[in-house]
Automatic annotation (TrEMBL):
This is DUF393 domain-containing protein. Pfam families: DCC1-like (PF04134). InterPro entries: DCC1-like (IPR007263). GO terms for molecular function: protein-disulfide reductase activity.
Length: 133
């Protein structure tokens, strides 16, 4: 079994629900869900890699980081096909092209929702004037 870590913004209701509905344990084993807003070794690694967590979730399998559309594509391939959500997720995101096309749409919806909720960005790359959606 691979070590699997999924890093995302738990303050986003869409992201949180998506990550909790995925059924990965059968194919991957334990998956550790990490809140991107909390300081951690994995967030330091993501920041060193120059990945903006406000623009995409990160899946770490062993020593490889999958970011954004690559992460959602990998998750779809690894998730079980049990349950309507997981079957639909697999059908939509099993195609890298579809994941690459749809991920920005999902990110846009996420950013709009977080803006309406008054949330701030994680801003793990510490970019100036990048604190609000």
């Amino acid at each position: 079994m691979q070590e699997a870590v999924l890093v995302y913004d738990t303050q986003c209701p869409f992201c949180d629900q998506y990550c909790r509905l995925l059924r990965l344990r059968d194919s991957v084993g334990e998956i550790r869900l990490v809140d991107a807003r909390q300081a951690s070794d994995i967030m330091e690694e993501i920041t060193r890699a120059g990945l903006d967590i406000d623009q995409g979730m990160v899946l770490k399998l062993d020593d490889r980081l999958y970011y954004g559309d690559d992460a959602i594509h990998a998750l779809a391939l690894m998730s079980s096909r049990s349950g309507m959500f997981n079957r639909l997720n697999y059908w939509i995101f099993r195609s890298p092209r579809r994941a690459r096309w749809l991920y920005p749409v999902l990110r846009y919806c996420r950013n709009r929702l977080l803006r309406l909720m008054g949330r701030t960005k994680v801003n793990n790359l510490a970019r100036p004037d990048n604190t609000h959606f």
